[in-house]
């Protein structure tokens, strides 16, 4: 019988159950989710895509990710910061992305805010990683196995408030917790998942910006 939140596949390997929810998930779960990231453009992309996810399933965003990258010029935030009404109109006509005007405008706004932050702090990575939670702030394995609704954490609340204060949008506490999971700031592969130890090793080797 599988442990709550974990599923054993036909090879005998045990993984987080959500890995089985869609054909695209195994690669994302095994190779990307939880891997520490320090590249500013990758981090800006993750913030934007998590914002686009708001109110939607992550699989929808994952399936459209390559077209998002095309539409937003590889998520080069210094380029996106220059977008105007013509670009918004272009993006609203692109069937390969989520055509939500508020989220598109937010992506452009956040590119401008990212430029400001990098000019001030040196890098987006350095600023974001300062919000890495302490051990006693992280949810227990039982909490993660039984999560329902919209998980947050004290650190994601702090990050959300700090970004909002700087003018960022679509950066609520739940969205920021998803970012922390995606960028490897926390390791939420459940105990028993075949990827948990690998991610923990990567986090141990990772040089914080």
UniProtKB/TrEMBL annotation:
Keywords: Glycosidase, Hydrolase
Keyword Cytoplasm belongs to the record: no
Enzyme Commission code(s) on record: 3.2.2.20
Molecular function (Gene Ontology), one example: DNA-3-methyladenine glycosylase activity
EC category name: hydrolase
PANTHER family registered for this protein in UniProt: DNA-3-METHYLADENINE GLYCOSYLASE 1 (PTHR30037), DNA-3-METHYLADENINE GLYCOSYLASE I (PTHR30037:SF4)
Name used for this protein in its record: DNA-3-methyladenine glycosylase I
Organism: Pseudomonas canadensis
Classification lineage: Bacteria, Pseudomonadati, Pseudomonadota, Gammaproteobacteria, Pseudomonadales
